[in-house]
Specification:
heterodimer, A: 295 residues, mainly alpha, ABC transporter involved in vitamin B12 uptake, BtuC, two-stranded antiparallel sheet, 11 helices, 2 strands, 73% helix, B: 234 residues, alpha/beta, six-stranded mixed beta sheet, 10 helices, 10 strands, 27% strand
């Protein structure tokens, strides 16, 4: 029982970060209509920036967020202009090939620039834990979880309570009509992609106190986020939040009770079942599932 | 004030407009009439800038706007209320209206504009927090027209306003449109209900297979023998 609770807590804490990565993927998909298979690479890039700022300048990862967040937003804007915008009007296959290609290019670039070794940030709180009723909680993981939830809540607020969010939801629902009522839709694609990439990079920074950076790390995150978005429902922010936490818990439970070797197999088994039984996901309305070939 | 001359437009390889010309006065209601697939909606799409013109020009207050973006045209005051309302169904009535006023959002008068729409269309005030997708057909059309009015247009083009609405609502909508037109907005109505539209409109233009064939006052159009034969079924 104690192990179960311990595992669940660890899983839910990790799931918060998965949710943060996934809402970004979902936002980009919902508004810009591109599934970005390079999304995880932006998590990886965020981790490396935090690592080098720590290794080079001794900057604490949480302080480096002040640099990473705007830098990643800018990277997102460049990504939108250079890669996404040219493929927006093309077929689903084209979008998948291009973003998978970008993912591989970024992985290789990281390998070339920074080598294959794992880079670990060690801060004073990296290994510190506290005990809560018999359950051991890592400080870094708890901060990552709370930080992720705060950011997801902030995104919810922006989406539902500001004019920018209203415009983004309108574009997600019906882009051509948004153009017709006089909204500069192209400009808002930059906003959506910028926020998406920024959230991925910030999630990467939040992971660094307890996770080492490596060129292949992003691949894992893309798969997780993709599964979360499909399970939660394409276009559903709440779905991504719930799905992220759920997946974190399932992955950790599978690692403890089945085998660490089978963690990803379990996730994909669940993914396949969801796609077959409920292709629109738990909270989705079915919009967009056909665009990525799931229906 | 709005002048369209010799417009031609294509969807891919297929030609939808061949030679469309007409002029809108400063106010009043003008009807654009024609059979199914005559090019009425396409004409509106070219005027609002979402479909490029292959040939011809759109002039607004003497300025050539043929190459202007939809966003620029809305800012100039040319607004297109599309067929089938095309509301943002998952957004509230008020959010839909605010989006209609996007081009003017920075002038600080959004609140006044909203209030004006609500006083003109009190039904929308009652439904302000309701999702637009849950409105009745008539309310949706009011919301669509209200969204169009939020940017304070000088030209308001409404596509198939009466489609799918109960006769009582249709009459209400037509009289509302005449009211707007009387306040100095030039309204262009695209309608398949020719009789009804001619009653509401001051002027009309007939379009047939991508070519505008007749223009005149409603009276002239109604009494034109060719028009009577082809469109009025008498």
């Amino acid at each position: 029982m104690e192990i179960l609770i311990q595992t669940l807590v660890a899983g839910v804490l990790l799931g918060g970060v998965y949710a943060l990565v996934s809402v970004g993927l979902n936002l980009l998909f919902g508004v810009v209509r591109v599934i970005n298979f390079a999304h995880g690479e932006f998590v990886m890039i965020g981790m490396y920036i935090a690592f080098w700022l720590w290794a080079g300048l001794g900057l604490d990862p949480y302080v480096s967020l002040l640099i990473v967040a705007p830098a990643m937003f800018l990277l997102g804007v460049i990504f939108q202009r250079g890669i996404i915008q040219p493929i927006q009007g093309t077929s689903a296959n084209m979008k998948i090939f291009v973003t998978v290609g970008i993912s591989i290019i970024l992985q290789n670039l990281a390998l070339f620039l920074w080598g294959g070794q794992h880079r670990t940030v060690s801060t004073s709180y990296s290994t510190s834990v506290f005990n809560l009723g018999g359950v051991t909680i890592s400080v870094g993981r708890l901060i990552a979880f709370i930080g992720a939830l705060v950011l997801v809540a902030a995104l919810f607020y922006i989406m539902n309570r500001t004019m920018t969010g209203t415009v983004l939801r309108a574009i997600a629902e019906d882009g051509p009509t948004a153009v017709l009522v006089g909204i500069p839709v192209k400009k808002f694609y930059f906003v959506a992609t910028g926020i998406s990439v920024m959230l991925a990079g910030v999630a990467g920074v939040m992971l660094t106190p307890f996770t080492s950076a490596s060129p292949m790390f992003g691949f894992h995150m893309t798969l997780i986020a993709f599964i979360v978005v499909v399970i939660g429902g394409m276009g559903s922010m709440v779905g991504s939040l719930v799905g992220g936490v759920l997946l974190g818990a399932i992955e950790t439970l599978a690692g403890t009770y089945i085998s660490p070797a089978l963690q990803q197999a379990v996730l994909f088994a669940i993914f396949i079942i969801v796609v077959l039984v409920r292709p629109q996901g738990l909270f989705g309305k079915g919009a967009g599932t056909e665009e990525v070939g799931l229906k | 004030m709005l002048k369209v001359e010799g417009l031609a437009a294509f969807y891919g390889e297929s030609q939808a407009l061949e030679n469309v010309s007409f002029e809108l006065p400063d106010n009043g209601v003008t009807a654009l009439l024609g059979a199914n697939a005559a090019g009425k909606t396409t004409t509106l799409r070219v005027v609002s800038g979402v479909l490029p013109a292959r040939r011809g020009t759109v002039t607004f207050n003497g300025v050539n706007i043929t190459k202007a973006t939809p966003e620029e045209r809305v800012r100039l005051g040319i607004v297109h209320v599309p067929e089938g309302r095309r509301l943002f169904g998952t957004l509230s009535v008020e959010e839909n209206l605010l989006l209609g006023g996007y081009s003017k959002r920075k002038d600080g008068n959004s609140k006044e504009r909203l209030d004006r729409i609500y006083s003109m269309l009190p039904k929308l005030a009652e439904r302000r927090t309701q999702l637009a997708g849950t409105l009745s057909g008539g309310e949706q059309q009011m919301c669509a027209v209200g969204r169009g009015l939020m940017s304070e247009p000088t030209v308001l083009m409404i596509d198939e306003m009466s489609l799918g609405l109960a006769p009582v609502i249709v009459s209400q909508m037509f009289s509302f449109v005449k009211e707007i037109a009387a306040r100095g907005v030039s309204v262009l109505l695209v309608e398949q209900q020719v009789q009804h539209a001619l009653q509401a409109a001051d002027r009309a233009t007939i379009i047939d297979r991508g070519v505008t064939t007749h223009s005149g006052t409603s009276e002239e159009i109604r009494n034109d023998p060719k028009v009577r034969e082809a469109y009025l079924g008498v």
